[in-house]
Design goal:
single chain, alpha+beta, 2 domains, two-stranded antiparallel sheet, 12 helices, 12 strands, 51% helix, elongated
Length: 388
């Protein structure tokens, strides 16, 4: 089968350039929404996964799901200290951090309020998060009402500058440090001394226990010890796994919502492409008859018109993808639906996002262009030349 030259397809797109731009623009808007959703999902996954360390283990109440809902008694915490596989520092002290996690509603700089995770921890909790670095001030002192704020919290919330005082949980707290957690979830947290957090929030028990493994393969021994002790109705997970599961639930929700919007918008874009291609067929019936008379078969005509539709969608896809890629440098925040707290992240543009987005654009082109292309291919030579 002799194919219609590609130059013919491109020339027709250029001749109808106003229509081409308008149709491609509609597709670009849909593609932009689609790509933004994927970039948001990738950004949240990057933020959550970067939070965990492979040699750290998170212990929570069985079935709790999140640190906010977890509860570990002091007796259970003492039992965790004796588990096999718990690492020690160079002074022989157990690398275990008993932590209290609470939600705290704080005012933002724009006048609204939002929930922030307040994490009470020990000195070991700090040392087991090596990605966290102080960029201003100092770390809180044990036994004091001092706080260290993540840089996203310091940027978005009121009274979070060094030396400022906040009042919550029945007492005043002084900001003594700002930390950079390398775009992990800790950028959206406030850290305080665990004993002070328990007193202020009237917590008789801990939320989670974090400990460092003595060796990489020691996790199973610790988990078996927990499962065999009827007093310990607890879940034991690597920190990386815990945060990956948290990001998966958030990404699933965002993708579901975003894809629903993309599908609704894409219907309009597909209809627009279909109308454009039907108009192209109607205005070029004589041209189609000439092509058929020159020996081009129906399949060649179908492929040529389908190629025009794919060209429209490709142009729209590249424009929408290019616009979405500009969001990479934008820092945004959203609600972590697992904890109902605010979490900062950035849009992340990847090769996978680009491939999925262009695939979606071409799919709209195929769906919107196939019926008009089929109509063009089914026209008879005599009918076309008669209407020419």
């Amino acid at each position: 089968m002799r194919a219609i030259p590609l130059s013919y397809v491109l020339r027709n797109l250029w001749v109808r350039r106003v229509t081409t731009v308008l149709t491609a623009g509609g597709m670009a808007l849909v593609v932009f929404v689609f790509a933004t959703v994927l970039m948001m999902s990738e950004g949240i996954s990057e933020t959550m996964v970067a939070t965990g360390q492979p040699d750290n283990v998170v212990v929570m109440r069985k079935g709790a799901g999140t640190e906010i809902n977890s509860n570990i008694t002091r007796e259970q915490a003492n039992a965790i200290d004796t588990l096999p596989g718990v690492g020690t520092d160079n002074q022989g002290r157990k690398l275990v951090s008993r932590e209290v996690v609470a939600l705290n509603n704080l005012p933002k700089r724009d006048g609204t309020t939002a929930n922030v995770i307040l994490r009470g921890m020990s000195e070991f909790g700090i040392s087991m998060r090596p990605q966290v670095k102080l960029i201003a001030g100092r770390m809180f002192r044990p036994g004091t009402s001092e706080i260290v704020a993540g840089k996203a919290v310091a940027r978005g919330f009121a009274n979070m500058d060094l030396g400022h005082t906040l009042h919550f949980a029945g007492r005043d707290w002084t900001v003594v440090g700002i930390m950079d957690a390398e775009r992990s979830a800790f950028d959206s947290e406030v850290w305080v001394d665990s004993h002070q957090a328990m007193q202020a929030f009237r917590r008789p028990a801990y939320s989670t226990i974090l400990f460092r493994l003595s060796r990489p393969d020691a996790l199973e021994a610790a988990r078996e010890a927990v499962n065999s002790d009827p007093r310990l109705q607890l879940d034991v997970k690597r920190e990386t796994q815990f945060y990956a599961e948290q990001s998966e639930s958030m990404s699933r929700f965002i993708k579901l919502l975003g894809m629903s919007l993309s599908v609704i918008f894409s219907i309009g874009a597909i209809v627009g492409a279909m109308i454009t291609m039907f108009a192209a067929v109607a205005s070029r019936i004589g041209e189609i008859g000439t092509l058929r008379a020159l020996g081009f078969r129906r399949e060649a005509v179908l492929i040529a018109f389908l190629g025009e539709s794919l060209g429209l969608s490709l142009v729209g896809g590249l424009i929408g993808l290019g616009a979405a890629s500009l969001l990479q440098s934008v820092d945004v925040s959203t609600v972590n639906y697992a904890t109902f707290s605010e979490m900062a992240f950035r849009f992340r543009f990847t090769a996978s996002v680009a491939a999925q987005t262009l695939g979606f654009a071409l799919f709209m082109g195929v769906v919107g262009g196939f019926i008009p292309a089929w109509r063009a291919a089914r026209l008879s030579i005599i009918e076309c030349l008669r209407q020419a």
